Here is the input.
Amino acid sequence: HGSLISSKVYAPLFLSGGSLARAPNPLPVNAIIKRPNLALFYRYIDRGRPNAIAKAILSEAKVYEILQRNPDLNIAEYRGCEILRDGCITGLCWTKLTDLLM
Here is the structure.
């Protein structure tokens, strides 16, 4: 391994007009961002699944969109996808919880 990882394999393209929400820019100060774990990239490459991280981000974002339409006090508020200038999703954003869950 040892080569640079292309953003295309971990940062899927955000489709305008699609079902995913874009996070506010700039993000509120109480926001948190979940970004992909690139340490897992070569494990997926070795298994012949180079786009697994990008697919997982899209799948996860779709689940959070459903949760956003059905809010629960015990689940952080989903804010949408963090998008870079090139139109790629680089993270999923939430409002940080202020209380501990029991």
Residues 78 and 94 are 4 Å apart (CA to CA). Residues 7-95 form one domain.
